[in-house]
């Protein structure tokens, strides 16, 4: 599977001493759907460039991103502008700040980040992901049971988006029937997370949604205070464990639970859908390979994370004047670490626009970040994607793409939601699990 590079690229110019790639707009619809031509041009001509409209630097090289993402001394992760609660409801929001903003480890720097992550990360360890394996297998088969007689479906919302949030619901101990609402809340907040300016009406709607989400999770936490479920339960452990003699406050726990749902709902689903589309492309060559031998499916998933990276990038703020790639960055400036660009860096991944699960450095992508902020949910995400594909291989071996469809994403600079476009058909009917 090979991505065609976009034909249009902008001109490079110097403005106020800063290199600028004219025409690049991370919110342009076509650029969001396929940014690879722009990013390839940037890596080769201007790997670190300035976006005047957004007042931020964009980093596109793998090696530079590794350095920045591992450097908490010169670059802060407290960089996203989360919309504040609107006046209509601010008196209902403690301290006037959303709980996720208060305790999301992805927005914190050491030592606060270290303290919170030590409590948060164990729930998403390799061991915990393995413990959910049977649940994942059962759930994916239940989903296939629900649509197998239809013969054709868009897998995005019928399958891919349902799996990660169902597993997160199990982790936080929420009823499974509430998983769709948890996903809806997560997507609503994802749409706002650092992407664009919102009208007042949109901010009020977002605020009311976030308030309902916080109330739901607060009720869940308070119920667990009264009815603890043992140390293996995520919320119970957050309530009872201390780090360096300090326990989390109720508000911090609410924020961490919301962060778990937010981070784990869409990204794995997006990569899963894109990867299925890739495997079914090029006359199903990769799909047929896996039907013949699934023993190396882990490699297919790992390359899928590189090739189908659902996270386009994150933000950092410069803490000290520093020179990067020969360019002076000033304290207080924003830096976009474009991880999607790094996953297609020709100097690290030869023929980067080709999906190749057997490339020797298949695991060197930065799709889960690098350094202290590497995603704690990476093991869970890999297990979910692998199980989803295994189930489809077993239950619907004849599955193939329906011509005329391709993955389509929402407009987002950082985490475009996979909206639709993984339309497939198959021959089986009522095949036994």
Model description:
By secondary structure, the protein is an alpha+beta fold. It has a single domain, classed as Cytochrome p450, CATH 1.10.630.10. Helix content is 45%, strand content 12%. It is built from 18 helices and 16 strands. It has helices at residues 29-33, 36-45, 62-69, 99-103, 112-120, 126-131, 133-147, 155-160, 162-172, 179-192, 200-226, 234-240, 250-265, 267-279, 285-292, 297-307, 339-342, 378-395; strands at 12-15, 18-21, 48-51, 56-59, 75-76, 152-154, 242-243, 246-247, 314-318, 322-324, 327-329, 334-337, 400-401, 408-409, 418-420, 423-425. A five-stranded mixed sheet has the order 3-4-12-9-5, with helices on one face. Strands 6-16-13 form a three-stranded antiparallel sheet. Strand 7 (242-243) and strand 8 (246-247) form a beta hairpin. The protein starts with 11 loop residues before the first strand and ends in an 8-residue tail after the last strand.
Give a summary of the structure in a few sentences:
The chain is an alpha+beta fold and 433 residues long. It contains 18 helices and 16 strands.
Question: In terms of topology, how is this protein built?
Answer:
Layout: E1 12-15, E2 18-21, H1 29-33, H2 36-45, E3 48-51, E4 56-59, H3 62-69, E5 75-76, H4 99-103, H5 112-120, H6 126-131, H7 133-147, E6 152-154, H8 155-160, H9 162-172, H10 179-192, H11 200-226, H12 234-240, E7 242-243, E8 246-247, H13 250-265, H14 267-279, H15 285-292, H16 297-307, E9 314-318, E10 322-324, E11 327-329, E12 334-337, H17 339-342, H18 378-395, E13 400-401, E14 408-409, E15 418-420, E16 423-425
Parallel strand pairs: 4-12
Antiparallel strand pairs: 1-2, 3-4, 5-9, 6-16, 7-8, 9-12, 10-11, 13-16, 14-15
């Amino acid at each position: 599977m090979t991505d065609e590079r976009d034909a249009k690229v902008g001109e490079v110019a110097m403005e106020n001493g800063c290199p600028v790639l004219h025409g690049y707009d991370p919110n342009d619809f076509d650029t969001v759907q396929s940014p690879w031509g722009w990013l390839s041009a940037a890596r080769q001509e201007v790997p670190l460039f300035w976006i005047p409209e957004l007042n931020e630097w964009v980093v596109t090289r793998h090696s530079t991103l590794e350095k920045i993402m591992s450097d908490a001394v010169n670059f802060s992760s407290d960089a996203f502008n989360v919309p504040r609660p609107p006046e209509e409801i601010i008196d209902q929001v403690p301290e006037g700040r959303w709980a996720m903003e208060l305790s999301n480890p992805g927005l914190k720097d050491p030592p606060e980040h270290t303290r919170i992550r030590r409590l948060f990360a164990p729930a998403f360890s390799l061991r915990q992901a393995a413990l959910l394996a049977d649940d994942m297998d059962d759930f994916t088969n239940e989903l296939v049971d629900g649509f197998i007689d239809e013969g054709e479906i868009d897998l995005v919302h019928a399958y891919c988006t349902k799996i990660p949030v169902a597993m997160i619901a199990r982790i936080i101990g929420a009823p499974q029937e509430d998983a769709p609402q948890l996903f809806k809340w997560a997507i609503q907040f994802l749409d706002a997370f650092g992407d664009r300016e919102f009208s007042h009406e949109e901010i009020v709607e977002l605020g009311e949604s976030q308030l309902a989400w916080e109330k739901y999770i607060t009720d869940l936490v308070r119920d667990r205070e009264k009815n603890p479920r043992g140390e293996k339960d995520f919320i119970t452990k957050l309530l009872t464990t201390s780090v360096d003699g300090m326990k989390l406050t109720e508000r911090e726990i609410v924020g961490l639970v919301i962060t778990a749902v937010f981070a784990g709902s869409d990204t794995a689903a997006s990569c899963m859908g894109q990867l299925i589309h890739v495997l079914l492309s090029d006359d199903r060559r990769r799909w047929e390979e896996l039907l013949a031998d699934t023993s190396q499916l882990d490699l297919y998933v790992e390359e899928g994370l590189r090739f189908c990276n659902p996270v386009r990038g994150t933000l950092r703020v410069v803490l000290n004047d520093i020179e990067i790639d020969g360019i002076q960055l000033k304290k207080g400036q924003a830096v976009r670490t474009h991880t999607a660009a790094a996953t297609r860096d020709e100097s690290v991944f030869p023929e980067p626009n080709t999906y190749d699960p057997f490339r020797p450095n298949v695991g060197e992508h930065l799709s889960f970040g690098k350094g202290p902020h590497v995603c704690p949910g990476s093991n869970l995400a890999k297990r979910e994607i692998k199980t989803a594909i295994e189930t489809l291989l077993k239950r619907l071996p004849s599955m193939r793409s329906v011509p005329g469809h391709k993955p389509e994403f929402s407009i987002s600079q950082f985490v475009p939601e996979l909206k639709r476009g993984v339309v497939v058909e198959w021959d089986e009917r009522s095949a036994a699990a």
